[in-house]
Amino acid sequence: MTATTARAAATTEAPDAVCTVRGLRVALAAGDVDVVDGIDLTLRPGEVVGLVGESGSGKTTIGTALLGHARAGAVIDAGEVVVDGHEVLGLSDDDVRLLRGEHVAYMPQDPASALNPSIRIGRQIVELLELRGIDTPAGRLERARAGLAEVGLPDDDAFLDRYPHQLSGGQVQRVALAMAFLPRPKVLVLDEPTTGLDVTTQTLVLETMDRLCEAHGVAALYVTHDLAVIGTVADRVAVVYAGRIVELGRREQVFSAPTHPYTRALLDAIPHVSQARALAGIPGRTPQPGNRPSGCRFHDRCVFATDACATTEPVPVELDTDHWARCLRTDELGPWDIDLGRVPDAPPSVERDVVLAVEGLNVSYGRTQVVHDVSFDLARGECVALVGESGSGKTTISRAVGGLHRQWTGRIRFEDHELARSSRRRTGDDRRRIQYIFQNPYLSLNPRQTVGQLVRRPMELFGLARGSQATDRVVDLLDAVALGPAVLDLRTDRLSGGERQRVAIARALAAQPDVLVCDEITSALDVSVQGSIVELLDHLRTQRGIAMLFVTHNLALVRSIATRVDILSAGRLVESGPVVEVMEHPQQEYTRTLLAHTPRID
Amino acid sequence: MTARATAPATSGTARTALAPAADGAPAGGSSTASRRRSWQPRLVVGLAITAFVVLVAVVGPWLAPHGEHEITGDPYSTAGVLGTDYLGQDVLSRVLHGGLSVLVVALLSTVVGLVLGVLVGILAAYVGGWFDEVVMRLNDAVLAFPQILLTLLVLSTVAEPTMWLIVVLVGISHAPRVARVSRGVALGLTRRDFVTSAEALGESRLRIVVREVLPNMSGPLLAEAGLRLTYSIGMVAGIAFLGFSTDPGAADWGQMINENRLALLVQPWGVLAPVLMIGIFAVGTNLAADGIAQLTSKGGDR
Amino acid sequence: MTTVRTHDPAPAAGPPAGPPATTTSGSSSARRSPATAWTLWAARRVGLAALTLWLVSVLVFLATAALGDPVKAILGKEAATNLGRAEQIRQQLHLDESLWDRYWHWFGGLLRGDLGTSVANGLPVGELIGDRVVNSGVLVLIAAVVIIPVSFAVALLSARHRGRRLDHGIQLVVLTLAGLPEFVVGIVLVALFSTVVFHALPAVTISAGGEGPWTQPASMILPVVTLVLVVAPYVIRIMRSTLLDVLDSDYVELARLKGVPERVVLRRHALRNAVVPAIQVIGLQLAWLASGIVLVEYLFSYPGIGASLVDSVRNSDIPMVQTLAMIVAAVYVVVNLVADVLSILCTPRERTAISS
């Protein structure tokens, strides 16, 4: 492990750095298993450094280490973190607490649960100032008001008197932002602060953050899994894989000349709103702490790997000013072109053989109507995307189509007949031919059944196959979703999220459906896994001619997967048409706003 | 009046066996899986203690040096290992003879309570609507009775209680508590997508309950069963201790306490021996219940 | 270290779990003034409690009047021979009337405060139980006053030493005690402190006629300690796990990362949010005490309603049993109501849901 302590050759020691991390290592308290290792990083005033990685990569661990904090069960056991001239790691708990807030502040992952539910937000915002005895009560209140105004929130007493649950998602985020900025920190750590927000709200929060960082000269470390967001806000980007920073450089460098194979694979996996791409997943699983391979930690999933990669731990290689990658073969990889993954958009005008047509659909929950007069259709072998922000009614529509929600009026025509409202009233054949795949594979598969039982059941239920014939078909299906027969007798708790979603897809395919309704089926998954699921779906669609209704909030994803798109807002259809036309020449203001707020990489 | 989870000790079970992988990390499941397989000391120790007491009760009659009603000395004398009781019967022999009846009644009443409670709970959760409202309102009314009170009420008008009456009464007093817990667990499950998914496929309702819902309730229900058994033994013995016996004169741990309690000073073992057996059994079942609850909950050390 | 948050399938990610929260309460509630809303809410709470109590009265009546034959239960074998006495009892209990009439007769009396007369000694029930209610109340109150701070302290100690030896030790003791029936605890205490090992404390309560048992404090010690040992373990367990939940919460973590000192984190951020579950478990256990005293009072011959209930059941003194059962149930319902109301008042989310 000598290489880990070697300083990154290219980490230019900026004289004006406000935060320097050297050789940071965080390990599990229980043993010698590292969560992150050999982390070198500098932050300069006013700049935003994006720290991007998938789940289990250790990016949040790096973020909180800047505040001298490791989550329960982990310890920071090597390296140094200097924030604003103070060495953080050697300090006692009490002294570290004194640094926090005024020198280094933290913006939590999920402000909705991170604000104390039983304290009014006005009190929470000024809490730290109050504890440190900064300013008079009246002065603190003034600062709180100014802080709220700065993030674009009301600053009246009524607002200060609210409890966190009385705010909307975007408001909570901005209150947390105001709270973090109030003690005027020099360094700010933001931990996925916009995950789960709608794009318009996300833009607002990001812009606010950007403006405040610049205005107050704050250096920000922005931790996220979302490369597209990084591409929008970051000045420099650090890519984390399995507890290591594998590539670090200025944003343009990382996005236009990515060098580490992992960075390249990530960029290949993410969809772009500006072009259709053949998305490719990264094979294998992200290794968790304790299961990480020797040598280069990415070697077992890397297409460029040689034998040396498995044994030699790569040191950072300088590629350009401020740009380095931790790879043995930087010289041999050759250039990379983002347009290589580009594919033509789905042709806007082809002969369509409509299988499912929704006409004048109104859906209600109780006395509240949530979908108003929506019509669209779906052709054989076609993928139609249903897009909208939260509350737009997109999932509700898909549930009505799938027969999961029965309180609707209007008509849903399936080939030559109308569908009954609920699945129980539909014919067995209708139920078989329309299959629904749920958003969260952690909830949609019965944890008490094996993969074999799960996939086999639809065949038995619909009388498609039984006995050994059914077993053979289960094996075939698992093969089709790239899982292999090894998982046959496993329960789903042994599988990763992506693997579970594949099981769910295999179960849907077992019914030999003509229509697949996919409800945000990739939103709970990592981008590299999303890439491979999309790849799989596309393959199934073209091979089997299955029509897909693809519900999503992600416009970029739509460009890569769908032929047609229907944009929804507040339960009404705003715009619909072939993807390329809607994306390139949006007719409606709402569509234009959505597109404008969708983060782009180029 | 929402009388919350009746017995606080069940709160562990409220965190159900299959909390969604809230960690969201794709491989998060594997660590839960390994935790599930890990050795659970409370469960093992609890089961061992329970098994020991059951063994004593089952083979006791063969090991007893004297018969159940055999007079071996003067009342409250020190003859024999643990002395004699109020009639001069051998305490050790009485203890060895007197376990089975208590345990059987406790076990049967637990089974009655569980079956009734689970049935009501699942029905309420799965049918929902007004049925759920009415059932749970009635449930609340029964819950307002402390468990032993219900039994005492009925005993006040029944001159000679039979064993079955005790079984049914104790069972019924468990039922609303079990119903509340199983309704809660089932409600969480019926909202899960895998149940919705089975509905969408058109599975029969019975199959959904039996194949999709019930198997996922086994953890919390086992923990609840252990807990109910703990309370059953206390109530069954407690009723006998209060002097309401189904078979006066017979060796029975609860009854022995009542028979000999006035002589605690002179001959403590006549009371302490059965008390300790009941106590040990209750501790064992409670430990086992807690162990199961820990295994099936996500928390680990709660 | 979670990159991808599994979207909560409930409101945020579309409405599969139901419509947005605001619509469930009906659109009309939005327009009500806070005062009206609170009044309606209070009325609903009290109404539900009253409904529960009424259902309880039906159950009490059915359990005592419909199942067995009171005459036979009271007189035993005498019932067949002593016809005069049997007829007298029949008259007193209105056994000739229909079940329905008897119920209304009894229930009406209950509402008017007429609790009937004891079958055993012909005295009015109200007179017989007055002192006993006070005695039991004192016992429960003293126990509660001990239980609440003790449980709080032990739970806090355990949570702060989480996973360490002290925590394990506390958990072991608490778990063992939690399984024990109250009479087991009581008898072992008696054996330890007043008979076999030490002779320090009186084993039974002897109260001179008319005087409350608290005039002899020594005789109160064992009953109180028994109740504490039976109830406190539950409270401790729930409070410990609540505290751990709260200490693990995002807002406590944020408070720490914000730079708030640990003692302020504990006091302001953690304890404040642990109060509500604490109120609920304490309410539940106080309600349980109302019946827990049955066996304990009997064991220690404490002159309260519990011991009285056992005697009345044995004598089949049905009017007494009915009244005592109603008292115990009413305590349960009222304590629960108070705990519910308190916990709602202490939860901002619930509070604002009512007034808006």
Automatic annotation (TrEMBL), chain A:
Gene Ontology MF annotations: ATP binding
SMART domains given in the database record: AAA (SM00382)
A Pfam family assignment: ABC_tran
Topology of the protein relative to the lipid bilayer: Peripheral membrane protein
UniProt subcellular location: Cell membrane
Keywords on record: ATP-binding, Cell membrane, Membrane, Nucleotide-binding, Transport
UniProt similarity note: Belongs to the ABC transporter superfamily.
Name assigned to this protein: ABC transporter ATP-binding protein
Organism (species): Isoptericola cucumis
Lineage of producing organism: Bacteria, Bacillati, Actinomycetota, Actinomycetes, Micrococcales
TrEMBL record, chain B:
Bias type Low complexity, positions: 11-33
Membrane topology: Multi-pass membrane protein
Superkingdom, natural source: Bacteria
Positions of the ABC transmembrane type-1 domain: 99-289
Name under which the protein is recorded: Peptide ABC transporter permease
Region of interest (Disordered), ranges: 1-34
SUPFAM superfamilies: MetI-like
Species of origin: Isoptericola cucumis
Transmembrane segments: 43-64, 100-126, 225-246, 266-289
Alphabetical list of Pfam families matching this protein: BPD_transp_1, OppC_N
InterPro entries: BP-dependent_transpt_permease, MetI-like, MetI-like_sf, OppC_N
Entry keywords, A to Z: Cell membrane, Membrane, Transmembrane, Transmembrane helix, Transport
Family from the record: Belongs to the binding-protein-dependent transport system permease family.
Subcellular location: Cell membrane
Endpoints of the signal sequence: none
Gene3D superfamilies named in the record: MetI-like (1.10.3720.10)
UniProtKB/TrEMBL annotation, chain C:
SUPFAM superfamilies: MetI-like (SSF161098)
Keywords: Cell membrane, Membrane, Transmembrane, Transmembrane helix, Transport
Chain intervals for the UniProt region annotation (Disordered): 1-31
Start-end of Low complexity biased regions: 20-31
Topological relation to the membrane, as annotated: Multi-pass membrane protein
Domain of life where this protein originates: Bacteria
Protein name: ABC transporter permease
Species this protein is from: Isoptericola cucumis
